[in-house]
UniProtKB/TrEMBL annotation, chain A:
The keyword Oxidoreductase applies. Pfam families: Ald_Xan_dh_C, MoCoBD_1, MoCoBD_2. Residues 11-22 have a biased composition (Basic and acidic residues). Its EC number is 1.17.1.4. PANTHER family: ALDEHYDE OXIDASE 1-RELATED (PTHR11908:SF132), XANTHINE DEHYDROGENASE (PTHR11908). GO terms for molecular function: xanthine dehydrogenase activity. This is Xanthine dehydrogenase molybdopterin binding subunit.
From TrEMBL, chain B:
InterPro entries: 2Fe-2S-bd (IPR002888), 2Fe-2S-bd_dom_sf (IPR036884), 2Fe-2S_ferredoxin-like_sf (IPR036010), 2Fe-2S_ferredoxin-type (IPR001041), 2Fe2S_fd_BS (IPR006058), Ald_Oxase/xanthine_DH-like (IPR016208), Beta-grasp_dom_sf (IPR012675), CO_DH_flav_C (IPR005107). It comes from Devosia algicola. This is Xanthine dehydrogenase small subunit. GO terms for molecular function: xanthine dehydrogenase activity. Keywords: FAD, Flavoprotein, Iron, Metal-binding, Oxidoreductase.
Length: 775, 488
């Protein structure tokens, strides 16, 4: 009898390090720009429009063509298929502007050169004649102009809103402007294409959605999808900015590669990347809320106007998700919310961590705050008074019952552990005694729905090969952008086979390995791909059990998986030995796994359904100090309690929570997108667009995972999605700043800060509160 | 006649590089990634703001090599003559064993997407060399020039604090080669002038100050390049040619700091980092400002002379220097002249600098006893941000409580760094009281008609300028309150 080894152990739920960590720190992790290019690789560069809206009169590229080092140019006429990369399939997103320029920074042509520098210099030589047209820059002017919607709006309605409003003892109406956000992935957009035989092309694309890049490239080239293979090993950050925005770049290099039969790479400069690619939608939410003297909300009626930009892209599902989160964690007895994805002459806004949800939730926190100031109460009391119930008051505006509600416990525990009440009293005391430096503290909840609201996206595939020596190839449809998906799925597989992680090779994501994948988005990566990999392992294991029972002459039920191998009756067989014998006995050692999320359905026309498999919860307390002479501020302390179910990897999840919070804080504080009066974005580089630094991290930053939480649904390891929800914990920073600003008016006036809450907004908020208090 | 060499020579990791053909616009990052195929250093922004390309550049200083973190994206290869360039590829041992900095980052989950990570590793390496057990504040300061979008920095800060538990700087694997590197650098630094290329591709690296004066007087159209923290962007963002160029980083006389009983003189090539201890010694009121402009890498490259010479309306050194009564020393060939710093800035993009004339040094008088002085930098993000406005205030209140002398200068409020003379006039001779301040703040509107842009609105700039005077007054009377990072 073989000796049982002691090395292998369960891999799931361990705080395992990121699989690429040692390569990251050594500079050995390969991003697309690091791949050693095939000989003769060409470099493309895009020529961008210098107008927000104009008729194209003439494009003269003769000087571009003859510039040193130029191989040729690409325009609309060089596209054998469709001049379109619209992910909504509305054919409203040309690769190269056609007829009209619709935003400042829109690609008009590409130049292909021997070097990137040659192409980039040549791109400046284009002579483009434009006839300027009036342009619509933002939500308010789009609404005023009756601008069209880029896609069908959504309405969610439940209860009798008119009656609720009419009968409400108190009402508050207002408008909140919520700024957008640039992804500022550290690795910008990039793609490289290598032509193959026949119609084939292989594309390396920094994308969260290889299958869509594959489809787009095929449509642009006018070939079938099978001719296009898209690979991505890792991205240098995505955050939603590479869900659809990589399509255009991939299409351009594929066009060039096929036209000149040479490899081609494109990498825009940071300023061009920020000018030409979509961002988080800015919103204006106009609201009317009825409530009672106890602060309970009775009715909500709100319109969510969003700057969609010039094309539909993902603006439909983004604005849908804003409405799905108009409730955050709150029960509305009557509610009517409507979206307006408005056409504007700006870059087409797109997915960004939270996908509209954060904007919906932030507006909810705004009216909670309005109610609290009107009633002279702690906003936390108003929040608690309106939380969803567990047995009743638990129907969302989209008619899904919230059946896993743990927000009350999360908030109660955090309120205690953060010493919220005593600190709030201390803050008020401080403010009474200090004239210049004012403090604020706030606790805000998060409830976030998990699943793609496009129900068909909730599927995933995996491909697992076990080789004769027992080593394993793991492929699945998810992409790695730093979030730790690869290591989590590898842990699932290691756990399933009872092997060490070093037995598993995590393969780059490729459309040739797993077809028809969904975007790695909506926080769904581990839920979907973890299950798909688990399913592949299950099939191989079942075959191995049959095999082992035969070889070791025991019942299949007597074959037990143990760390490092199997126990077949009395016999321990190492995984390697089992695989070797299985191969000799002609057992198939490869499997495709597949998973679809159960239970979910959604009827957009009626606004009813069960779009989310479950909810993730969390809460944060932020404390800030502001300087009322300048509006400068700092976040002094943050306490977080967040729900990840039973964590698949606490280290990775902690990274998502800390990182998500800081990214959310950036969105809501210093990250300001500014367009000038010509419609040009002026904040298109880190010199002008300010994401948080190490010195913006709260000096006291206590982050805890709710260890007791278990997903009530049978997800992989009973874990919960963690990619997006923590971003919204940063709403507490806005609310804390708000309290500090309110202190200059002795908390009598709701500060109503729009976001991002820059130092300027803080100072001007203080000025306004003072004016209003004076009357 | 100076000895002229027709090659740039430096050490890259452990390899000696000698280049006889190189453009003055070739950046170190492109050289590493494209020519050498060392692709660990990343391009994130190509403007020195994100730090993904951070490498260390070592330079002989007295008896040792000083290693500075720099952003390779805006550092020109032509500025590296006689230096030791250390990239992320050089840190791990040949057998793959990670360096303590790297291992600490891995173990503390300091990387997620990993793209910024090599830059963080290099910045932390530079910090650890000089400060193996840094405070949180020191870590934050060292990382001001490194952006991470994934981690929220917390794990990186934890890693930074833990590095020394993986090994002491004395046991640094790279320290072992330091003696040999030093000997090699001493050989490379042969005192030669370097001249390469023709026309727009021409550049010269003078070895001495007199050479610079002579060359520039002969070639007044040449571009003087010091830290390239501004000129670098002309190349990476606007694809401008900068040749013929004169790189002044190898002129020892320009790195001098001269002190006497009444004033301190910074020669033009002194970097912000080199100036820091002297500045904070004489003007402790400038410590916060000095630690808040740009990031560490840019402070290591950028020079005091460059910040003045380029005439930017938003440079952060002119306002305090003007308030302190600084004198600028200009030189053209053998001819030298001295002007008040405030007189140097004529208009937007226009300075009082003649063809062939360059900024040689700036002299700052000590603050006379009994005078009060403060500088405030206001920006959207606290660190590594360009000022929305920067105000410097200096006052002498006599023993009758009246203003005996007042100097106020601002950046970000006009087309040039500029004094608030109307406000000064409203204060001069008046009692130093709240009433006087309130009567004077209105004069800011006659001194300045600021613009609104992506950094701040005109109204905000004007209001804050007024409030800063209020703050300054409160501070001089002991009633001031200021935000201090981490104080709460």
């Amino acid at each position: 009898m073989n000796k049982h080894p002691s090395v292998a152990r369960s891999q799931m739920h361990e705080a395992t390090r990121h699989d690429s960590g040692p390569k990251h720190v050594a500079g050995a992790a390969e991003y697309i720009d690091d791949i050693i290019e095939p000989a003769g690789t060409m470099h493309a560069y895009l020529g961008l429009a210098q107008s927000a809206h104009a008729e194209i009169v003439d494009i003269d590229l003769s000087a571009v063509r003859t510039a040193p080092g130029v191989i040729g140019v690409l325009g609309i006429d060089d596209i054998p298929g469709h001049n379109d990369v619209s992910p909504s399939h509305k054919h409203d997103e040309p690769i190269f502007a056609s007829g009209e320029v619709q935003f400042w920074g829109q690609p008009m042509f590409a130049v292909v050169g021997e070097t990137r520098e040659a192409a980039r210099r040549a791109a400046q030589l284009a002579k483009i004649e434009l006839r300027p047209l009036p342009f619509i820059a933002d939500v308010k002017s789009a609404q005023a102009a009756g601008s069209r919607l880029v896609t069908e709006p959504l309405k969610l309605e439940r209860g009798d809103v008119n009656k609720g409003m009419a009968e409400a003892p108190r009402r508050v109406a207002g408008s909140m402007a919520i700024g957008g956000q640039d992804h500022f992935y550290l690795e910008g957009q990039i793609a490289m294409a290598i032509p193959g035989e026949d119609e084939d092309v292989t594309v390396f694309s920094s994308t969260q959605h290889p299958s869509e890049v594959q489809l787009m490239v095929a449509n642009v080239l006018g070939v079938q999808q099978h001719a296009v293979t898209v690979n991505v090993r890792r991205m240098g950050g995505g955050f939603g900015g590479k869900e659809t925005q990589g399509n255009l770049f991939a299409a351009v290099v594929a066009l060039a590669a096929k036209k000149w039969r040479r490899a081609c790479k494109v990498r825009p400069d940071r300023d061009d990347d920020m000018s030409a690619t979509g961002k988080r939608h800015d919103f204006v939410v106009d609201y009317d809320v009825g409530y009672d003297e106890s602060g309970k909300i009775l009715a909500v009626d709100a319109v969510y106007g969003a700057r969609a930009g010039f094309s539909s892209d993902l603006s439909g599902p983004v604005t849908d998700r804003a409405l799905f989160h108009a409730d955050n964690a709150y029960w509305y007895p009557a509610v009517r919310v409507r979206s307006e994805p408005l056409y504007t002459n700006t870059v087409s806004n797109t997915a960004f961590r939270g996908f509209g949800g954060p904007q919906g939730m932030l507006a909810a926190e705004r009216w909670i705050e309005d109610i609290a100031y009107a009633l002279d109460r702690d906003p936390l009391d108003i929040r608690k008074a309106n939380f969803y119930g567990t047995d009743d008051n638990n129907i969302t505006p989209y008619h899904q019952t919230v059946s896993d509600n743990i927000i009350a416990r999360i908030v109660d525990e955090l309120e205690r552990s953060s010493n919220y009440q005593a600190r709030r009293a201390a803050v008020k005391k401080h403010n009474a005694q200090n004239a210049v430096l004012k403090k604020g503290i706030a606790l805000t909840p998060v409830k976030f729905g998990i699943s793609f609201t496009a129900t068909w996206y909730n599927q995933a595939g995996a491909l697992v090969h076990v080789y004769k020596d027992g080593s394993i190839h793991l492929s699945h449809g998810g992409t790695e952008m730093g979030q730790g998906l690869y290591i989590k799925v590898a842990q699932v597989l290691a756990d399933a086979f009872g092997v060490g992680l070093d037995s598993i090779k995590i393969m780059a994501t490729s459309t040739g390995k797993v077809p028809n994948t969904s975007a790695t988005a909506a926080s769904s990566g581990s839920d979907l791909n973890g299950m798909a990999a688990h399913d592949a392992a299950r099939q191989i294991k079942e075959r191995l059990v049959v095999h082992a029972a035969k070889i070791y002459q025991c019942a299949e039920e007597a074959v037990v998986w143990v760390p490092g191998g199997i126990q077949a009756g009395d016999e321990f067989v190492s995984f390697e030995a089992l695989i070797a014998s299985a191969y000799l006995n002609r057992v198939q050692l490869s499997a495709t796994g597949f998973y679809t999320t159960p239970k979910i359905h959604w009827d957009r026309a009626t606004g009813r359904g069960h779009p989310f498999y479950y909810f993730a919860y969390g809460a944060a307390v932020s404390e800030v100090t502001i300087d009322i002479l300048t509006g400068e501020y700092q976040v002094d302390r943050v306490d977080i309690l967040h729900d990840v179910g039973t964590s698949l990897n606490p280290a990775v999840d902690m990274g998502q929570i800390e990182g998500g919070f800081i990214q959310g804080m950036g969105w809501l504080t210093t990250e300001e997108l500014v367009w000038d009066d010509k419609g040009q974005l002026r904040t298109h580089a880190p010199s002008t667009y300010k994401i948080p630094l190490a010195s913006d991290v709260p000096p006291i930053f206590n982050v805890e995972i709710a260890e007791w939480s278990v997903n009530t649904e049978p997800t992989i390891g009973r874990s919960k999605a963690v990619g997006e929800p923590p971003l919204m914990l940063a709403m507490s920073v806005v609310e804390a700043l708000s309290m500090a600003v309110a202190s200059v008016g002795d908390y009598k006036v709701a500060p109503r800060l729009d976001t991002p809450v820059t130092p300027e907004r803080v100072l001007m908020g203080c000025e306004r509160v003072r004016r209003e208090v004076r009357g | 006649m100076a000895n002229i060499r027709g090659a740039i020579r430096f050490i890259l990791n452990n390899e000696e590089i000698s280049l006889t053909e190189v453009s003055p616009t070739t950046t170190l990052l492109d050289f590493l990634r494209l020519d050498r195929r060392l692709r660990g250093s990343k391009e994130g922004c190509a403007e020195g703001d994100c730090g993904a390309c951070t490498v260390l550049v070592g330079r002989l200083s007295g008896d040792e090599i000083i290693y500075d973190s720099v952003t390779a994206c805006i550092r020109f290869v032509a500025s590296l003559d006689g230096c030791h360039v250390v990239t992320v590829e050089h840190l791990a041992a040949k057998d793959g064993t990670l360096h303590p900095v790297q291992q600490a980052m891995v173990d503390h989950h300091g990387s997620q997407c990993g793209f910024c990570t090599p830059g963080f590793v290099m910045s932390l390496y530079g910090l650890w060399m000089r400060d193996p057990n840094p405070t949180t504040a020191a870590i934050e300061r060292a990382l001001q020039g490194n952006l991470c979008r994934c981690t929220g920095y917390a794990p990186i800060i934890r890693a930074a604090k833990a590095i020394s538990s993986y090994g002491a700087p004395e046991a640094d694997p790279l320290r072992a080669e330091r003696i040999k590197i030093k000997a090699r650098l001493e050989t490379l630094n042969d005192g030669s002038r370097v001249e390469l290329g023709e026309d727009a591709e021409k550049f010269i690296i003078p070895a001495h100050l007199d050479e610079l004066a002579e060359i520039y007087a002969d070639m007044p159209r040449a571009r003087i390049v010091a830290g390239s923290t501004d000129v670098g962007l002309w190349v990476t963002k606007f694809m401008r040619d900068i040749g013929p160029a004169i790189f002044i980083g190898n002129i020892p006389e320009l790195r001098r700091i001269a002190e006497n009983d009444s004033e301190v003189r910074f020669y033009a090539g002194v970097s912000y980092s080199e100036a820091l201890p002297i500045i904070t010694n004489y003007f402790p009121q400038l410590g916060e400002l000095w630690n808040r402009f740009a990031g560490e890498q840019v402070r290591n490259m950028g020079t005091i002379g460059g910040n003045i010479a380029n005439g930017s309306p938003i440079g952060d050194t002119p306002p305090p220097f003007i308030a302190l009564g600084a004198k600028l020393h200009l030189r053209q060939g053998e001819h030298r002249r001295e002007i008040k710093l405030e007189d140097y800035f004529l208009d937007y993009g226009k300075q009082d600098r003649r063809p062939g004339e360059f900024v040689e040094s700036v002299t700052i008088p000590h603050l006379p006893a009994g005078e009060q002085f403060a500088t405030y930098k206001i920006s959207k993000r606290r660190d590594e941000d360009i000022s929305a406005l920067c105000g410097a205030f200096r006052v002498f209140v006599n023993d009758t409580g009246h203003v005996g002398m007042v100097r106020i200068a601002f950046g970000g409020m006009a087309a040039t760094p500029k004094r608030a003379k109307a406000v000064e006039a409203a204060l001069d001779g008046q009692p130093w009281t709240v009433e006087t301040i309130e009567a004077a703040v209105g004069a800011f509107a006659s001194d300045f008609q600021p613009i609104g842009d992506m950094r701040a609105s005109a109204a905000y700039r004007l209001l804050v300028a007024q409030n800063l005077l209020r703050r300054f007054h409160a501070e001089t009377t002991g009633a001031g309150q200021r935000l201090v990072r981490g104080a709460a």
